[in-house]
Amino acid sequence: MDQASPQCMDDEAPLFAYPQNGRLPKVVVHFPVASGATLTWRVEADSTLAVNGARLWLTRISSPYDHWLVPGQTISLQRGERIWLSTDGERTAHVSLTYLLPAPGFFRRCLSRLASLSLGPPAPR
After folding, report:
1. Where are the alpha helices (DSSP H) in the chain?
2. Residues 85, 39 contacting (CB under 8 angstroms)
């Protein structure tokens, strides 16, 4: 996935801005899956995978079933699951992975919760 191209897409908001109506910007990552190649990764955020170009084989570690996605079809992915992708035949599949950016202040809230625990530096043994 070294050829992936992230794009922030939200038709109703400027780039990286958080609109007032609560909708968050989304990130769309486009990448090819070449014939004969198998890609695998752990999904880092709830997302939607869409396929174009060629039929795509998808398997999940948490599911006993394989999924065959035809061009134009989408599938929802959950944070934390591991997936494998491969193509069916000689053509390259073009995949889009779409996910929402975290809410503003998400990381700040996480850090303040950690700070409130007052753990301090580790004590010497």
Report:
1. 106-116
2. yes
Residue-wise pLDDT tens digits, 31-73: 999 998 999 989 888 899 999 989 999 999 888 889 999 999 9
Cα distance between residue 93 and residue 57, in whole Å: 10
**What own/partner pairs with CB < 8 Å and gap ≥ 24 does 120-123 have?**
none
pTM of the model: 0.64
Domains along the sequence of the chain with CATH: 5-14+21-116 (2.60.120.10)
Best CA proximity match to 31, nearest among 90, 89, 102, 87: 87
